[in-house]
Amino acid sequence: MRCLACTTGKLEITNSRKHATEPRVWRRRACTNCGFIFTTHELPDYTGAFTVGNGKHRKDQIPFNKAELLRDLFLAGSHMPKQDALIWLADTIASKAFRAAAESIGTYKKSAKKTSLPVPVIDNAAYQQLVLDTLTAYDALLAANYKARLSLSYR
Ligand SMILES: [Zn+2]
Question: Which residue(s) pair with 31 in the sheet?
Answer without folding.
Answer: 11
